[in-house]
Amino acid sequence: MIIKSLLDTDLYKFTMMQVVLHHFPAAQVEYRYKCRTPGVNLRPYLDEIRAEIHSLCQLRFNEEELAYLGGLRFIKSDFIDFLGLFHLPEKCITVTEGTLPGEIDIQVKGSWLHTILFEIPVLAIVNEVYFRRTCTNPDWEEGRKRLQTKMKLVLEATDLDDFRVAEYGTRRRFSREWHEEVVITMKAQMGKHFAGTSNVWFAMRHGVLPLGTMAHEYLQACQALGPRLRDSQVFALDTWAKEYRGDLGIALSDVYGVAAFLRDFDMYFCKLFDGARHDSGDPFDWGERMIAHYKANRVDPRTKTLIFSDALTFPRAIELTRRFSGRCKTAFGIGTNLTNDLGHEPLQIVMKMVRCNGQPVAKVSDAPEKTMCDDKAYLAYLRQVFELPPAE
Fold it and tell me: Which residues partner with 104 through β-bridges?
């Protein structure tokens, strides 16, 4: 089995899942998989992927795992009780051949509460099956060399005392074993510069901090669950604040682009949330706009944390640290560049929510290629409502 524990996923899946249990338990959703890397043929591995997903759906949380989750300060006891009965419903996921040559199609449809944990392990399964079949002799030493080079950039610098990086690479990792080696190595060698990991299983196994708050799907679902579309972003942030009462205070800023985010992120949210996360568009421009926005709302940006997580590398993270040093707190989440950098081209695969309660939902970020929606009319309407430029 590739996935050996239901904890082998990102923390924000559990933090969002708790919100779903308490606020949207009846929501019905659809997710769709997409491979953005051209020329990839996954069809020869279709049966293997199905077998791994079947094994995933047999997993249950054990007592040690439930105790670990229950020990996190923001996880509530009724959620742990629910997880004690939980399993991923195999009837809600289909894996078939796609319409294009070599393409496969993965769809998830069902209760949001019961399907939210599919995305991350399914993507990890597709990645690992693909790479173990196409890269039969991985160059592990090359991977270790590259990892050491990255860490040395931080450890040997004299002006990066406040540099903090977390590992965010579960969904696009080369393999589970390599992912775990990366976490172990960073914990052993990076000291205070290693903030933790988004992967809950490795956080538990190796005594590091699990990190994460919300993902795009949460704000997308609120397009269908809120009182009206224009207020969906405010509704999502308000509901989050009701659930966590000031904890887990990093807001995701790019579901509608930074301009639309700043229109909704008023003085109340500026003061309430600990910071914001960048995941598309120019990170330097985003950081400057966030700092200016905090100042305009009479909030000292030096008390806030800006987290950068869009296709980061260590050199880019270091450059961002130096740009914003002394002006705000910064932290970095690096994924693919840590867990799938052995000299092979990583797969650009995603699984996105496309419908909630039968209604189309979408992310319209500052990176147009990340938009994924199966209803062009809805996408045009969404752009109009949030005062976004028309699609090119």
Answer: 97
Domain that holds residue 319: 140-339
- Looking at the structure, tell me whether residues 364 and 314 fall in a common domain: no
3-state secondary structure of 202: helix
**pLDDT tens digits for 21-33?**
999 999 999 999 9
Q: What is the mean pLDDT of the segment spanning 107-126?
A: 98
What residues pair up with 30 in beta bridges, in sequence order? 109, 355
Domain count, the chain: 2
Is 274 part of any domain?
yes
Whether the pLDDT of residue 365 is over 80: the answer is: no
What per-residue confidence (pLDDT) applies to 370?
A: 63
Q: From CA 311, how far away is CA 211, in angstroms rounded?
A: 17
Distance CA(217)–CA(363), nearest Å, equals 8
Residue 169 inside a domain? The answer is yes
CATH number at residue 286: 3.20.140.10
Q: How far is the C-alpha of 131 from the C-alpha of 45, rounded, in Å?
A: 11
Residue 288, SS3 per DSSP: helix
Query: Nearest 5 degrees, angle CA 357-CA 363-CA 364?
Result: 140
DSSP string, 135-158: -SS--HHHHHHHHHHHHHHHHT-S
271 assigned to some structural domain = yes
Q: Which residues contact 278 (CB under 8 A, 6 or more apart)?
A: 253, 254, 286, 287, 306, 307, 308, 309, 310
Please state the pTM of the whole predicted model.
0.96
Residues 227-245 pLDDT 10s: 999 999 999 999 999 999 9
Domain shared by 131 and 233, yes or no:
no
For residues 205 and 329, membership in a common domain is answered with: yes
